[in-house]
Design goal:
The chain has 267 residues and is an alpha/beta fold. The protein has a single domain, classed as Vaccinia Virus protein VP39 (Rossmann fold), CATH 3.40.50.150. It is 39% helix and 17% strand. The chain has twelve helices and seven strands. It has a seven-stranded mixed β-sheet with strand order 3-2-1-4-5-7-6. Strand 1, helix 5 and strand 2 form a beta-alpha-beta unit. Helix 2 crosses helix 4. It is globular, with a radius of gyration of 18 Å.
């Protein structure tokens, strides 16, 4: 498993740790897989503050996915860069078909813990190779989850991937976390992914640089740390967490963007 793929253990640890505390996110699968894998987490990756942050990010993506499924009941759900995440089980809304996608060695590990079914499948896919989008199932509408993946793709690679999706699906609903240019530079030596050997990250200051002319639009920016979730922390932890993850500086480093098919392009 390469360095980028090893980063999947960081959110897995965070979700497992928080789930055991019965706050923010209920994820028994993360607890089970973390205990079985026993990957050596160290340094910043083992911070309880990061664990809270990873769990909140996951919960925001979960809630958004549920909201999109309520609007688009027949949509195909694509979780790109799924790692060992169990979102397909955590969401509350029913779905027609859910595809978890990641690189082949990650999918091989996933298949040790999850079984495919009539409406759930796993598929190897490299987001840096847009041509592989053609292998995905057909659908009028696709809900696309891009959690913790954009920062490993150059702007050109990300644009190519989004363009391929836009050409394949008439209606797209996308949620994607991104680093800013400043965030990518600052993260080179001060990011938990450094603990597993990753030092090359990419940032985006303007979404137009990536989606301009593609028939996609930026809908809105979401918060990684909704007050209702922050308030689930113990009072002392809550105070320190707010300093670390809810201030202006954090917003200048890391953002959560919702994209959708532009009016007139997909209805």
């Amino acid at each position: 498993m390469n360095e980028v793929n090893k980063t999947l253990f960081i959110p897995l640890y965070g979700k497992s740790t928080v789930s055991e505390q019965h706050i923010i996110l209920s994820d028994p699968d993360a607890e089970r897989i973390w205990q079985a894998e026993s990957f050596p987490i160290r340094g910043k990756s083992k911070s309880k503050w990061l664990a809270y942050n990873m769990a909140m990010r996951a919960r925001v993506f979960d809630d958004w996915t549920d909201s999109m499924l309520r609007k688009h009941k027949d949509a195909l759900v694509l979780h790109i860069g799924c790692g060992l995440d169990s979102r397909f089980r955590r969401v509350k809304e029913p779905y027609r078909l859910w595809i978890d996608c990641d690189l082949p060695d990650v999918i091989a590990i996933r298949k040790e813990y999850f079984d495919e079914s009539g409406n759930y499948r796993m598929q190897a896919l490299d987001a840096s190779v847009p041509a592989q989008v053609a292998q995905l199932p057909e659908s009028d509408t696709a809900i696309v989850i891009l959690e913790g993946i954009s920062m490993y793709l150059s702007k050109e690679q990300l644009r190519g991937f989004l363009e391929a999706l836009q050409k394949k699906y008439r209606v797209l609903c996308i949620l994607m976390d991104i680093y800013t240019e400043f965030g990518a530079k600052a993260s080179k030596y001060r990011n938990p992914v450094n603990d597993v050997g990753v030092t090359k990250l990419y940032g985006i200051d303007s979404m137009e640089e990536v989606i301009g002319g593609l028939g996609l639009r930026a809908v809105r920016e979401h918060s990684f740390t909704p007050p209702a979730l922050v308030n689930e922390l113990k009072p002392v932890d809550r105070t320190f967490f707010k300093v670390l993850f809810t201030g202006r500086l954090y917003g200048k480093i890391y953002r959560l963007m919702e994209l959708a098919t532009a009016p007139g392009r997909g209805g």
